[in-house]
Amino acid sequence: MFAGFQKDQCHVNGVDISYRKGGTGPGLLLLHGHPQTHVIWHKVAEQLAEHFSVVAADLRGYGDSSKPPANDHHSNYSKREMARDGVELMKALGFDTFSVLAHDRGARVAHRLALDHPKAVQRMVLLDIAPTLAMYAQTDETFARAYWHWFFLIRPAPLPEALIESNPQLYLRSVMGSRSAGLKPFTDAAFAEYLRCLQLPGTARGICEDYRAAASIDLEHDQADIDAGHHLNLPLLVMWGADGTVGRCFEPLEEWQKVATDVRGKALPAGHYLAEEVPELLLGEVLDFLR
């Protein structure tokens, strides 16, 4: 995986962010989701690197990046702090401006990054999410059953952390294998890497704090932007899985049109894990848009 890429760490915003970098050309930041790492991009990274300087980063709390302690307001894991991690990482690597391709939790970070640092982001692709505030506001039984982990992980410490740490492989298989495609999209090497990182000290805490922030301080930040009339003012492409929960329970394109001025989007014939389920289709859409 990631032939021709260099793996390294960079100290930014008070944490160490682990990343792989490869290719040449304009900067492209890749951000992953839960409960995974930057390895989600292993089926598309080498092709993207033919056109871009690709930086695939592990979010704080995930992978080999730092897992800072929690605080009372969960601000250490707010999407605002995670977004600052990404901006400072790209700047440290020589990119004052760049594009972003992001999935799941990483797409929520990217949403905040483009709001807080509009001059840094040129174009953005978000995969299989609707805006966080809209998803919480429109939660129904179907969504709650499918995304049970949203409500499990925000329970007070240490219960969710203890249950994850008691059997990381069971947790990984339960979350990833319960989607429409089961475990088929994940290669043995990728799954082994997800499991290795989930077993690292502090990862369970990082995951839970990510979700606790999303259900508290992140919603406050999102509502403040809506109240102030702030929109995403950049070319935005949103895609979701035709067989996934987001497309079933929400109208992703309509929800993004409420918070962005230049947005287009479509469903792809997949479930949640687009980059691992339909990598060639995803590449075609992303390259057309980003170039």
Radius of gyration: 17 Å
Q: Order of strands across the widest beta sheet?
A: 1-2-4-3-5-6-7-8
- SSE sequence, one letter per element: EEEHEHEHEHHHHHHHHEHHEHH
Low-confidence stretches: none
Strand runs, count: 8
Strand content: 15-25%
Overall mean pLDDT = 98
Distance between the termini: 24 Å
Mind telling me the CATH superfamily name? Alpha/Beta hydrolase fold, catalytic domain
Shape: globular
Name of the CATH first level? Alpha Beta
Number of helices, counting only DSSP H or I runs of 4 residues or more: 15
What is the CATH fold-level name?
A: Rossmann fold
Task: List the domain count as a whole number.
Answer: 1
Estimated helix fraction: 40-55%
CATH-scheme architecture:
3-Layer(aba) Sandwich
Describe this structure in words.
By secondary structure, the protein is an alpha/beta fold. It has one domain: 3-Layer(aba) Sandwich (Rossmann fold). The protein is built from 15 helices and eight strands. The chain has helices at residues 45-48, 79-92, 105-116, 132-137, 141-146, 148-152, 159-166, 168-177, 188-198, 203-214, 217-228, 245-249, 252-259, 274-277, 279-290, and strands at residues 6-12, 15-22, 27-31, 53-57, 98-103, 121-127, 236-241, 263-268. The protein has an eight-stranded mixed sheet, with helices on both faces. The longest helix is centred in the first third of the chain and has 14 residues, at 79-92. It is globular, with a radius of gyration of 17 Å. The chain starts with 5 loop residues before the first strand and ends with a helix. The model has no long low-confidence stretch (mean pLDDT 98).
